[in-house]
Amino acid sequence: MQQRAGPLMQADAFLRATFNGALLGADAYSTIKLLLVLLGVSRVLKDLRRASRCEGLYSWLMACISPWLKRLPFVQSQLKKETDKLRHDIQPSLIKDLTQPKTRLPAAGMAEDKVLKLMLERRELDTKYWQDGRVTGAIYHGKREYMDFVGIRSDGL
Length: 157
Fold this sequence. Notes:
- By secondary structure, the chain is an all-alpha fold.
- Among the domains are: 7-54; 98-157, no CATH class.
- The protein has six helices and no strands.
- The chain is elongated and about 100 Å long.
């Protein structure tokens, strides 16, 4: 009683005959090299298919070659120039709220009310951006009781 081969068995037999014929007489290195090339080609085809459906071929190509372009000396110098320009433009707006930073102890002490006023001013400057949600990178509790607990505890504040 002979069973009829199903579609999977037929496909297996076809692939076996095709690969055995193609690799007949090939050494192990050639076989592995062919396998790696086929894997690489399938990966590129898969990426191209995804890119054509989602982000577009131009975006995919730019994402592939931009790391290599960034290594070119004239591109690096242009990027550095633009980064420095951006830093120069943004830095004043980031630092404008600083209250004259003190790097040394003053020769004469300050009056208590002046110190408390400076501390209050500093606290307002420190919290005005993150309370509005404009600063990221940390988790802020935001409740006044907590801020009083971790901040400066003083009846004057």
